[in-house]
Amino acid sequence: MAQMTRGENLIDTCFHLPYNPQLVERAKELRKNMTPAEKKLWNNYLRRFQFRVLRQRPIDNFIVDFYCAKLKLVIEIDGESHFTDEGKDYDGERTSILEGYGLRVIRFTNDQVLKNLEGVCRQIEELIPPNPPC
């Protein structure tokens, strides 16, 4: 996975999170080719979530699996590549950068989504504040 230097080629405004426009085409490809776990979570829950959720959203130099702007929430579905030492290090750095924008990052494994969707949905529901933004 090619990695860019922080700040390189990013669009940054007061109104949106910075993103790399060069990732837009890749994000579109990923939307068309979601993993089975991403499809299940999207089709059975996030598609009809009470707040708008975007799939494969470029933020900074990353493409996050799901993003809910109202809740400032990133939802990641992790496959096997995330469990290597290199994958864990990359995810840690990525999470730290995203949290630096005031985002909350929650991670689930493919197995959690595929085998316990109800539990995954319950954990996401628990992140909705008592007085959510309108």
Describe this structure in words.
By secondary structure, this protein is α+β, with helices and mostly antiparallel strands. It has a domain at 37-125: VSR Endonuclease (Endonuclease, Chain A), CATH 3.40.960.10. It is built from 5 helices and 4 strands; from the N terminus they run ααβββαβαα. The chain has helices spanning 24-32, 36-44, 85-99, 110-115, 117-125; strands at residues 54-59, 62-68, 73-78, 104-109. A 4-stranded mixed sheet has the order 1-2-3-4, sandwiched between helices. The longest helix is centred in the last third of the chain and has 15 residues, at 85-99. It starts with 23 loop residues before the first helix and ends in a 9-residue tail after the last helix. The model is unreliable at 1-6 and 11-15 (pLDDT under 50).
Q: Class of the domain at 37-125 in CATH?
A: Alpha Beta
Q: Give the low-pLDDT segments.
A: 1-6, 11-15
The strand count comes to 4
N to C succession of SSEs: HHEEEHEHH
Strand order of the largest sheet: 1-2-3-4
Termini gap: 37 Å
CATH superfamily heading of the domain at 37-125: VSR Endonuclease
Task: List its salient traits.
alpha+beta, Endonuclease, Chain A, globular, disordered N terminus, 4-stranded mixed β-sheet, 4 strands, 134 residues
Give a short synopsis of this structure.
With 134 residues, this protein is α+β, with helices and mostly antiparallel strands.
